[in-house]
C-alpha cells in the first residue's frame, strides 16, 4: 500500500544520483542501488514498482538481473539502459521480456514517462491478481467456516461485509470457537490480503518488553537496545495486525494503543518522531470486555473505539446442529494429516458426539477427531470420567471388603462386635458380606447371621 517506487541500479555513482534526482523532479519515488545483487533482495511477487538498470555493470549485469527478476515474477517491469548502442543486446533484452530499452543519452522526462507507464501496468497486474485471489478466497470462506445453522450463515455474511471495508474489527467468542480462523479469513478477503498478517498474543507478551515489542525502539532507548529495531506494528505495514486476547493488554498500554488506533502513527521507544502506520487492527476476546470495563481492567474509550465492527463467533452450544458435519470434516482433515484413509465414524459414536457438550468448542472437537484417527478414545474427559469413577469404586470396594473381612476374623466371625465397631447396622453388614462373598468363608457364631 506504499507508493510504488523506481529501483534504480547503476554502478556509476554520478549517473545514479543525477538520474534519481531528475526522476524525483518528475514526482517519482526513487531508491538507488550500486549493484544488481542488492536490488534482487528486495524483489518479490508483490513488488509494486519498476526496476531501471544499467546493462553493463561489474558483478551481476543488467541482463542477468532481468532474467533473475523474471524468475521471481515475470510481470515485474524492468527497463534496461545502455550506453553502447548495442543493437544485439537490445534484441536479446526484448526476447528476455524487458519492458523497455533505453539508450544513453536519454532525457529524464523520457525515462520518467516510460517508468510511469510501467508502474501503471504493474498496478493493474497486481489489482487483477488481488481480485482473483479474493474471489477464490470468498468461495473458501464456506469451507473454512462451515455450518448451516443461522448463526454461521450470519457470521459468514457479516464477515464478507466487514471484509470489504478497512475497518478495525473486534471478534468475540468463547475459547476455541475459531476466532483466529475468522480473523485470518477477514484478512484474506480484504484489500490487504497480499500483505502480512502479524499475530500478537497480548496474554503472552512479556510485561517489561511489551512496548518495544509492539512499537520498536531506537538504539540506546534502554540498556541492551544496541541497534534500532522495528516493532511488530511496523512489521505489519500495509497489512493486518491481529491482537489476540486484547483484554489481557496491560492497562497503561491500552491508552497508548488507543492513540495508535486514532492517529495511525507510532512512536518508537527512544524517539520523538511519529511514524505513519498503515495497518488494519483486528482484536479478539473471549472475556466479556464490558465486564472488564466495569471492574476497571479495560478502558471504556478503547472498547468503544474497537466495538464498531464486531463479529460474534457462536459456540458449539449455540449451533449444535452443525456438530455432526463439522466433526466429519475434522475427521477427514485429521485423516489426511495423519495419512490414514480407513477411518469410519460409527453411528453410535456420532450420536454421542452430537449430544455431548463441548466447552472447548471446535478446538476440543478437533482433538476428538484427532484422537479417533489416532485410534484413541475420541471422547476424553466426559466419557472417560465414568471409567475413572468405576476404577475408583472398585478400589473403594476392595478396601472395604478387606476391612470387613479382617474385622470378622478378629471377632471370630461374630457379627455384633463387627457392626458395632464399624458403626453400621446389622443389615448393612449383612448386605456387604453378601456382596463381597464373605458369608460362607468365615466361621459364623451369630445365629442371626446364619439365619
Ligand atoms: N470452523 C472451523 N473449521 C475447522 N477448524 C476450526 C474451525 N474453527 C476453529 N477451528 C480449529 O479449532 C482450533 C481453535 O481455533 P482458534 O484458535 O481460531 O480459536 P480461538 O477462538 O481463537 O481460540 P482461543 O479463544 O483459545 O484463542 C484451531 O485448531 C482451528 O484450526
Summarize this structure as a short list of keywords or feature phrases.
alpha/beta, Rossmann fold, Helicase, Ruva Protein, domain 3, 4 domains, binds adenosine-5'-triphosphate, elongated, 451 residues
Which ions, cofactors or small ligands are bound in this entry? Answer: adenosine-5'-triphosphate
Q: Could you tell me the number of beta strands?
A: 14
Q: Based on the structure given, which CATH architecture of the largest domain is correct?
A: 3-Layer(aba) Sandwich
State the separation between the terminal residues, measured CA to CA.
Answer: 95 Å
Q: What spatial form do the alpha-carbon principal axes imply?
A: elongated
Spatially, the strands of the biggest sheet line up as 2-1-3-4-5
Share of residues in strands? 5-15%
Low-confidence stretches: 442-451
What's the number of structural domains?
A: 4
Protein name: C4-dicarboxylate transport transcriptional regulatory protein DctD
Pfam families: AAA_lid_14, HTH_50, Response_reg, Sigma54_activat
Keywords: Activator, Aromatic hydrocarbons catabolism, ATP-binding, Nucleotide-binding, Phosphoprotein, Transcription, Transcription regulation, Two-component regulatory system
Modified residues (4-aspartylphosphate): 54
SSE map:
Blueprint: E1 6-9, H1 13-25, E2 30-33, H2 36-40, E3 50-54, H3 62-72, E4 78-82, H4 87-95, E5 100-103, H5 108-144, H6 150-163, E6 169-172, H7 179-188, E7 197-201, H8 210-215, E8 216-217, E9 229-230, H9 232-235, E10 240-244, H10 251-263, E11 265-267, E12 274-276, E13 280-285, H11 289-294, H12 300-306, E14 309-312, H13 323-337, H14 347-355, H15 361-373, H16 380-410, H17 415-422, H18 426-435, H19 447-450
Parallel strand pairs: 1-2, 1-3, 3-4, 4-5, 6-13, 6-14, 7-10, 10-13
Antiparallel strand pairs: 8-9, 11-12
Helix pairs in contact: 6-7, 13-15
The structure holds adenosine-5'-triphosphate.
Amino acid at each position: 500500500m506504499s507508493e510504488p517506487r523506481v529501483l534504480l541500479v547503476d554502478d556509476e555513482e554520478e549517473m545514479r544520483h543525477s538520474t534519481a534526482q531528475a526522476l524525483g523532479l518528475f514526482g517519482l519515488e526513487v531508491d538507488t542501488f550500486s549493484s544488481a545483487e542488492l536490488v534482487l533482495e528486495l524483489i518479490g511477487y508483490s513488488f509494486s514498482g519498476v526496476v531501471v538498470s544499467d546493462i553493463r555493470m561489474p558483478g551481476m549485469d543488467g541482463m542477468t538481473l532481468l532474467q533473475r527478476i523474471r524468475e521471481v515474477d515475470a510481470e515485474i517491469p524492468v527497463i534496461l539502459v545502455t550506453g553502447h548502442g548495442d543493437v544485439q543486446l537490445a534484441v536479446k533484452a526484448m526476447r528476455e521480456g524487458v519492458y523497455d530499452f533505453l539508450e544513453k543519452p536519454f532525457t529524464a522526462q523520457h525515462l520518467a514517462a516510460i517508468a510511469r507507464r510501467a508502474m501503471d501496468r504493474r498496478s493493474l497486474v497486481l489489482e487483477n491478481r488481488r481480485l482473483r485471489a479474493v474471489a477464490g478466497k470468498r468461495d473458501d470462506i464456506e469451507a473454512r467456516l462451515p455450518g448451516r445453522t443461522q448463526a454461521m450463515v450470519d457470521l459468514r455474511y457479516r464477515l464478507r461485509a466487514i471484509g470489504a471495508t478497512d475497518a478495525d474489527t473486534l471478534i468475540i467468542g468463547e475459547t476455541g470457537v475459531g476466532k483466529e480462523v475468522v480473523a485470518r479469513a477477514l484478512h484474506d478477503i480484504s484489500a490487504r490480503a497480499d500483505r502480512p498478517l502479524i499475530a500478537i498474543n497480548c496474554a503472552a507478551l512479556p510485561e517489561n518488553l511489551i512496548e518495544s515489542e509492539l512499537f520498536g525502539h531506537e538504539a540506546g532507548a534502554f540498556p541492551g537496545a544496541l541497534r534500532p529495531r522495528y516493532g511488530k506494528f511496523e512489521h505489519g505495514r500495509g497489512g493486518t495486525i491481529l491482537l489476540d486476547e486484547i483484554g489481557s493488554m496491560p492497562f497503561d498500554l491500552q491508552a497508548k494503543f488507543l492513540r495508535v488506533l486514532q492517529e495511525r502513527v507510532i512512536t518508537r521507544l527512544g524517539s520523538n518522531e511519529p511514524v505513519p502506520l498503515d495497518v488494519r487492527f483486528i482484536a479478539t476476546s473471549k472475556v466479556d470486555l464490558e465486564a472488564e470495563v466495569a471492574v476497571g481492567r479495560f478502558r471504556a474509550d478503547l472498547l468503544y473505539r474497537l466495538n464498531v465492527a464486531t463479529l460474534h463467533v457462536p459456540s458449539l452450544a449455540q449451533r449444535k446442529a452443525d456438530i455432526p458435519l463439522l466433526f466429519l470434516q475434522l475427521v477427514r482433515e485429521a485423516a489426511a494429516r495423519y495419512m490414514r484413509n480407513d477411518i469410519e465414524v460409527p453411528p453410535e459414536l456420532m450420536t454421542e458426539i452430537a449430544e455431548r457438550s463441548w466447552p472447548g468448542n471446535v478446538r476440543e472437537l478437533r482433538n476428538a477427531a484427532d484422537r479417533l484417527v489416532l485410534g484413541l478414545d475420541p471422547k476424553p474427559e466426559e466419557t472417560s470420567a465414568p471409567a475413572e469413577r468405576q476404577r475408583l469404586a472398585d478400589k473403594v470396594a476392595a478396601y472395604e471388603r478387606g476391612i470387613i473381612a479382617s474385622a470378622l476374623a478378629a471377632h471370630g466371625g461374630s457379627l455384633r462386635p463387627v457392626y458395632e465397631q464399624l458403626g453400621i447396622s446389622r443389615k448393612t453388614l449383612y448386605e456387604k458380606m453378601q456382596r463381597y462373598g464373605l458369608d460362607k468363608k468365615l466361621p459364623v457364631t451369630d445365629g442371626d447371621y446364619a439365619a
